[in-house]
Amino acid sequence: MAFDFDGTLTVRDSFTAFLRWRAAPSRFVSGYARLTPAALRYLMDRDRERLKAAAVAEFLTGLPRATLEQQAQSFADAVWDRFMRPDALATWRRWRDEGARLVIVTASPDITVAPFARRLGADDLIGTQLAFDADDRVMGAFATPNCRAAEKVCRLKAAFGPDVSLAAAYGDTSGDTEMIAMAAEKGFRVFHGVPGRG
For residue 30, what is the enclosing H or E element? Predict the structure, then answer.
């Protein structure tokens, strides 16, 4: 079973929420203002990878891996109860009870999604990987292509073999289309639950 993360298991984009959570309000606003050129380029070329890399460079460059991991864990602990879709969690638990192998496949950095994956008991996490320098600090770039669209299929095949098949796949954007097409059960935008409202 393959689950997208942002908007599927969660109610919103986790990486933007993480960047906002860890930065002082003024720092977040000024940082996003400096991303305006990248955002304007995105309107022209629709290159999500370039836009996301610009955000990584702006907010995380130089951060030690251990600090980022600690912050990601604190973020997951702080937002879990208001972040996770109850109907998506119920489906996740149902598949787990049936003994399925559960994989999160996300365009967000795997290092920031990892605490959520651990809490869910995911068997595997496939995400976009950040590049780190020789001192184990964020370089402000990616070590892998952005894990969306056809890249999700490529990464699944790299992890599980070229003949990998999915009993079910769930996602909520065009970036999940190719992954969902692989699955016997195609779950596109099937989760709408909001924490506290079911």
Answer: helix 25-34
- Max Cα–Cα distance, the chain, nearest Å: 49
Is-above-0.85 flag for pTM?
A: yes
pLDDT tens per residue, the chain (198 residues)?
999 999 999 999 999 999 999 987 777 777 667 767 756 665 665 656 667 788 888 889 999 999 999 999 999 999 999 999 999 999 999 999 999 999 999 999 999 999 999 999 999 999 999 999 999 999 988 999 999 999 999 999 999 999 999 999 999 999 999 999 999 999 999 999 999 864
Q: Among 140, 155, 175, which Cα is nearest to 59's?
A: 140
Q: Are 125 and 113 in contact (CB under 8 A)?
A: yes
List strand residue ranges (DSSP E) for the chain, in order. 2-3, 103-109, 124-128, 130-132, 138-142, 166-171, 183-188
Pairing of strands 130-132, 138-142: antiparallel
Q: Rg of the chain's alpha carbons, rounded to an integer?
A: 17
Eight-state DSSP code of residue 175 = G
- Helices (H) and strands (E) counted in the chain, each on its own, are 9, 7
Question: For residue 138, what are the contacts with CB-CB under 8 A and spacing of at least 6?
Answer: 56, 60, 61, 62, 63, 65, 68, 130, 131, 132
For residue 68, give the H/E element and its range: helix 65-83
* CA–CA gap between residue 66 and residue 136 (Å, rounded): 8
